[in-house]
Amino acid sequence: MSLPPGFLDELRNRISLSQVVGRKVVWDLRKSNQGKGDMWAPCPFHQEKSASFHVDDRKGFYYCFGCHAKGDALSFIKETENVGFMEAVEILAREAGMPMPARDPMAAQKADRRTQLVAVMEEAVKYFRLQLRSGAGAAARDYIAKRRLSVEGQDRFELGFAPDARQGLFQALTAKGIAPDLIVDAGLCIKPDEGGRDITPYDRFRGRIIFPIRDARGRAISLGGRAMDPNARAKYLNGPETELFDKGRSLYNIGPAREAAGKGQPLVVAEGYMDVIALSEAGFHATVAPLGTAVTEDQLRLMWRIHPEPVIALDGDAAGIRAALRVIDLALPLLEAGQGLRFAVLPTGQDPDDLIKAQGAAAMQRVLDAAQPMVNLLWQRETEGRDFDSPERKAALDKTLRAALTRIKDPSIRGHYGEEIKRLRWELFGQRGRKPTARAPFRPGQPRQAVALGPVANAKASLLASSRPDDTSLLASSREEALVLEAVLLATLVVHPALIHHFESVLEVVDLTSPDHDRLRSALLRHADAPDFRAKIDEDQRAVLETLFAQSHVQSAPPVRNAQDAELAAMCVAEGLAKLDARRGARREIEDAVEDLSGLADEGLTWRLSQASDAVNRAGKTNLEDASDMGEDRAALSQHLQNLIDGQVWLKKKG
């Protein structure tokens, strides 16, 4: 929302900074000079006894000489209330008596409607609170007393009671002149189907303890109700989706929790109303709960706005663990640096309320202190109760974990998760044979020594070492060697265009490294039937052809020099395509292996790398450094290549 010019200046002029700050501090009157607006107090942002926090009312700024916090009235509200900029503006505007500007007439009308609905909700909260104190609320008061909730706690959370009457709330609100459609639209009452004789709305909440649900600004937006009847169809009932209330974007107790988190308390996410109340009463004021649904993406983002690492407190039963696992799947793609989750699992069969009543707040604090990072629960989910006594089962575990890690978008977090998974995997499977060796860290003046590493770490070291630019390994030289193969292959087809049809089906799908080579391959396929083939190719790809035939390894290649030897050319094309196909497979295997190393690696990683290398060698015995001599030593060609040629497997299938 954009604010009109001058709005913020007017707001700051109407508000005294010392008045705003004075709600949070105790002024040092000996050091302060009220007449000049020069005020001093202990800083509200850090613990101290001396008055090092200075407010200059005339300039409208504050500064702490201890922690160096500084700003104006808006930044003070943002920091102390843990709210966003626009929310801080709204808070100060209400205090100054300035109406917030509406975006447009329709927005103003909608805002008025929401204001009306909020007013209806507040009247409903008052009605239910009065009912709890009435004779009809005796059973509800007894239940609350058994839960050991103090009167102060009841008032703090504004608990109420809905009598088991069909139209108790409806009649009470309409008697105050509130329109029936507002009562229905607020979600407080239900309008019967038009087909019935009685179409008068009836109360949604009946025979229930009422929990008001407020938004971050403290406005009542819905209600939750706990049934007094143990045989009720739903133990807990929340209000429906309305203009005020979106279950998936709201959290119970968000306002007080945000303020407490802003003062340094960890954000605790419990499962329900009573858990939040019990935790808050025990001193864990930064506690929230989802509202009758599994945690949603919007709720996660809302939690992260309050605290970078919320602690999910789960009941120690199967349902609690299932809830945690759902949160993990939801959170993985949303993780960012410094933004995560921890999970505190309570003793089996206990919720926070049970634990606090049985052992006190200290026991709950121990549970929160022992909260586990999310990666631990991810590992537990995939390994607990399972046996990995075969390579197939281990491979299945690797596949599942790899799929989970690929959902993490942040590459740094994904890498750290992979490292932790590898560590846990090593702990689970233990050593397999003698540990490979790798070089120890270099220290000036000392010779390098070999140190023992696990197979995964050794594979990573070997692969990274093989990636040095000056190495002639498969990884380092694969692109250069592929370019040589491709150049000789394409030049051979230019000189022997009759072979294009024979190898068309393979040529269409083979991966080429260079964009120039790809364009030339397309031109070859496009003009293969042209009577003036060479002229068409020259016209279409003249620059590419000039570069191609200027290369020494192309000029010296036997199938290019011997334009009359079609048999030699066919063998060389078959060999070249086979090698490129093998290299494609090797490249994919290496890419998978590199991905494994950034995530997790299985015990067969080094075997897979060696197989990738062997695949290239099996594709043809001719040394890649002697690609210019393709065809000179025909006896060296592998038997399977000859079989390919004899069987003409490259022929494009008809129909």
TrEMBL record:
Keywords: DNA replication, DNA-binding, DNA-directed RNA polymerase, Magnesium, Metal-binding, Nucleotidyltransferase, Primosome, Transcription, Transferase, Zinc, Zinc-finger. Its EC number is 2.7.7.101. One of its GO terms (molecular function) is DNA-directed RNA polymerase activity. A zinc finger (CHC2-type) spans 43-67. Residues 265-349 form the Toprim domain. Contains an N-terminal zinc-binding domain, a central core domain that contains the primase activity, and a C-terminal DnaB-binding domain. This is DNA primase. It comes from Fertoeibacter niger.
